[in-house]
Amino acid sequence: MTHPAQPKASHFINGEYVEDTAGTPIPVIYAATGEQIATVHAATPAIVEQALSTAKAAQTAWARMTGTERGRILRRAADIMRERNHDLSVLETYDTGKPLQETLVADATSGADALEYFGGLAASLTGEHIPLGEDWVYTKREALGLCVGIGAWNYPTQIACWKGAPALACGNSMVFKPSETTPLCALKVAEILIEAGAPAGVFNVVQGMGEVGGALVTDPRVDKVSLTGSVPTGKKVYAAAAEGMKHVTMELGGKSPLIIFDDADIDNAVGGAINGNFYSSGQVCSNGTRVFVQKGIKEKFLARLAERTGNAILGDPMDEATSFGPMVTEKQMNIVLGYIEKGKEEGARLICGGKRADMDGYFIEPTVFADVTDDMTIAREEIFGPVMSVLDFDTEEEVVARANDTEFGLSAGVFTKDFTRAHRVIGNLEAGSCFINSYNDAPVEAPFGGVKASGVGRENSKEAIKHFSQVKSVYVRMGDVEAAF
Ligand code: NAD
Description:
With about 475 residues, the chain is of the alpha/beta class.
């Protein structure tokens, strides 16, 4: 019998499901059991062509609709997503292995938030009037045209919506390629947009690995590329986009610092460290994986952290009591286990976890290392799994310098009761998305994105509108034209 997660077809183009079985088969594996639950096919060159030509053709009429009309469609799509939250969350769990306890509140719901928020902004995109004596300049905020979205595997619904919603609000069309690891959820976003009234061809989904992404990025009809992925992929995609002078948004990796001063509320700081390391089994780009704890509270912090980490419930992700799921794939599990071995070899002190869980699926126990030093591999490289490194520090000056000593700059957090210090420290940290006495909140109203190697541009908030639109300025002369001859 066909598994309920199996989509009708691999791609969604011009308002309908499209198949081409000549494309390389991509198995979809449920991470909690290792069972194959679905198959899709990578896009062939013919499918890529169909998606791009459809999106190009649909864009002009979409941009000519009023912002109010476009916004109404996006807001209707948000309502449909919320009505179907349970089914969409189950699909997200099949796609990623993340526990239903999380997917019910973090995935389709945050996708719906983006559709609602950008739906609300669509009608407010206006230009300026700049008086120049009797002449004037006016500006228009225009769509970029055809946008390509490329997703990572950790938040397949959210990433499709975080890219699709602002792109469509501004009057662009989009071809979205999900990660080959999690191909299912974006298809539902495309289906729902059509149901909500979006014209066929405005939001299309094609499947495939890096080469399909590469074919989309290098096509001369494409005006903008928005990628969520790793730094090495980001460098390739940014370079390919630059070749065609295309706009980019790059949401890439991180190795973010979470700094806990000795006056912090210990339980809140432990809660922040747990949210910043173990949510989605650590597969979150903004995670605060370098937890700097001031020496005076180190042992107290570690004891409370170990106790609370012991309360994680590993198990069937479809059971709402489960609070900690598997790694997305066997490959990712092995990468993370390799980092855990490195941590042990390089002399970090294992506080809890440290191995594969004794159960089916790709589960790794939530792992905490203490006495981690700045030069250790686990303190330098993005692990993308449930491995927290706790480092000690003495002074504010020292910790800020050490926190900034990384190629990444996605996020940073500070826990302290001293608000003057909190703002000063955040002001000195090289990071795009920061937190004071909290960690990993990502409301659609706030800009999200990194500095340094962690990325270019911002998602969410009014900032995202700037990255999916451009300004045209028009000089209007009222009198005669003076010329030299
Ligand atoms: P990845 O870089 O391997 O792949 C990302 C996407 O790029 C996939 O869809 C892949 O098929 C595609 N791709 C690969 N090579 C390509 C090429 N040459 N041209 C075009 N497309 C190409 O990343 P991943 O393993 O799927 O995801 C994990 C990474 O994503 C981590 O580094 C994580 O930090 C990052 N991430 C960042 C954010 C953020 O918002 N900053 C969010 C989630 C994940």
